[in-house]
Amino acid sequence: MPLKFKDLRDLFADSMINLGVQAIYVDAMAGRAPASVLAKHYVDLSPQKLKQVYEHAGLNVLNSSAQATVQSASEHSRSNL
Asked: Domain ranges in the chain?
């Protein structure tokens, strides 16, 4: 059975919830639009805040060598444009 993007998103969401991250932040990280008035108007869902929440949770999706590979590939693709 092939792995689907939804499976990865579900795994990520389950992992973050198990690490104690509030559902409102997990939804934002998964690309879901905020549903409540509180989330839409009063909760900081900026990229900087989401990064802070992610780093505080301690979940590392990519190890440092994989991150370096992704960064290198990204820089290479931009230089070829």
From this structure: 5-79
Measured in degrees and rounded to the nearest 5, phi and psi for residue 75 equal -65, -40
pTM: 0.66
Tokens of 30: 């998964």
Whether the per-residue pLDDT at 74 is higher than 90: the answer is no
Residue-wise over 45-75: b if at least 16 C-beta within 10 A, else e? beeeeeeebbeebeeeeeeeeeeeeeeeeee
Tokens standing for residue 46:
């900026």
Q: Cα-Cα-Cα-Cα dihedral of 25, 55, 66, 76, to 10°? A: 80
